[in-house]
Write a structure and sequence with these properties.
By secondary structure, this protein is an alpha/beta fold. It has three domains: 3-87, OB fold (Dihydrolipoamide Acetyltransferase, E2P), CATH 2.40.50; 93-256, P-loop containing nucleotide triphosphate hydrolases (Rossmann fold, 3-Layer(aba) Sandwich); 263-356, Ribonucleotide Reductase Protein R1, domain 1, CATH 1.10.40. It is built from 13 helices and 15 strands. The chain has helices at residues 9-14, 16-20, 51-56, 125-138, 155-166, 182-187, 205-213, 217-220, 263-269, 271-277, 294-300, 306-326, 328-356, and strands at residues 24-32, 35-40, 43-49, 65-69, 80-85, 91-95, 103-108, 112-118, 141-147, 171-173, 194-198, 223-225, 228-230, 237-241, 247-250. The protein has a five-stranded mixed barrel. Strands 6-7 form a two-stranded antiparallel ribbon. A two-stranded antiparallel ribbon has the order 12-13. The longest helix is centred in the C-terminal third of the chain and has 29 residues, at 328-356. It is globular and about 85 Å long.
Length: 357
């Protein structure tokens, strides 16, 4: 049971201390608020987070491997209690809601990130660049999935455009209607390997899951609600087993991910831009007309699209902003920098006026 959900020798080693305390391992396959359903060697069980875990550590999320006390037996028995979370091999992180919200894990222990976009007028290379940076930062291997191939007039041309910014990342055009590309996608989802869906609303993520499962799983699957079973809603997170043995984590929280501490992810997603930047004459080159700028030379020679440079700058700015929100000293330094810029601008305007007088 555990092996089919991705249990490994490494996780067995990490669990040894918990085993000595009489706890059992399990994987979170359904998460809704603070109630969980775990896959264990004894089958699926309901669980809640223990008090110490709620107050001293981050709560488990879908995909986590946990250590839990077995559920009580008998007529009045309650759910299992999660006492600990095993070390994560990957994590998708977002900012928690509310003022001053810190890092919050949206999904854990994912090996493959399915970056889903639709082959229609809403296809955005810039959005896919963001998803690639997020995937690389998480530690998962990205795979770009272009849905609704049956409704696209020139699949090959659009796939080529996406491949140009993917740099070796697999790009698969699929159709849940005709079945096109589903075999190639299934080949990426090997037994025990966990994938997560990342994409904006309306690109066909749930339809894709249903096509891979071979049933309307995401429309009918029961969930945990106050200790009972309820109907599917869009608020819960669920780990779905596929007929071939792979697993897909479907979670609405993946739509809200920002660039949290994403320096490494941006470097990987924009390796072409950063390789060019390393060849600039000046180490602090802003790639805005400075002499000896290798980036602008590549744009002039049509070896780099100007839109890609603009996207890199935009995402770097966003990542820097997120970093400053969590670092008061960095935020203070940024305010001083802009105060100096504004002061210099005011001085320049005043001098120009004096000359005019």
């Amino acid at each position: 049971m555990l092996t089919s959900y991705g249990w490994t020798e490494r996780r067995q080693h990490d669990f040894q201390t918990h085993a000595a305390n009489g706890l059992v391992p399990g994987r979170v396959i359904v998460q809704q608020r603070e109630r969980y359903r775990l896959a264990t060697e004894a089958g699926e069980i309901d669980a809640v987070a223990g008090g110490k875990l709620r107050h001293e550590a981050e709560l488990p999320v879908a995909g986590d491997w946990v250590a839990a006390s077995p559920p009580a037996t008998g007529a009045g028995g309650g759910p299992a209690v999660i006492r600990g979370v095993l070390p994560r091999t990957s994590a998708f992180v977002r900012r928690a809601a509310g003022p001053g919200g810190g890092a919050q894990v949206a999904a854990a222990n994912v090996e493959t990130a399915l970056l889903v976009a639709s082959l229609n007028a809403d296809l955005s290379l810039r959005r896919l660049e963001r998803y690639l940076a997020i995937a690389y930062e998480s530690g998962a291997d990205p795979v770009i999935v272009l849905t609704k191939a049956d409704a696209c007039d020139d699949v090959a041309a659009l796939t080529a455009e996406v491949s140009a910014i993917a740099f070796g990342t697999p790009v698969l055009a699929v159709s849940a209607v005709t079945g096109e590309g589903l075999a190639q996608l299934s080949a990426q989802l090997t037994p025990g390997r966990t994938a997560v869906l990342l994409g904006s609303s309306g690109v066909g993520k749930s339809t894709l899951v249903n096509a891979l499962v071979g049933a309307e799983r995401m429309a009918t699957k029961a969930i945990i609600e106050a200790g009972a079973r309820g109907r599917h809603t869009t608020t819960h997170r669920e780990l779905v087993r596929l007929p071939g043995g792979g697993l897909i984590l479907d979670t609405p929280g993946m739509r809200e991910l920002g660039l949290w501490d994403a320096e490494a992810g941006l470097s990987a997603a924009f390796d072409d831009v950063e390789q060019l930047a390393a060849g600039c004459r000046f180490g602090d080159c802003r790639h805005a007309g400075e002499p000896g700028c290798a980036v602008q030379a590549a744009i002039a020679g049509e070896r780099l699209a100007p839109e890609r440079l603009a996207s890199w700058r935009k995402l770097q700015k966003e990542a820097a902003y997120e970093a400053r929100r969590d670092d008061p000293l960095a935020a203070q330094a940024e305010r001083r920098r802009w105060a100096a810029i504004h002061k210099e601008a005011r001085g320049w305007i005043k001098a120009k006026r004096d000359i005019g007088d």
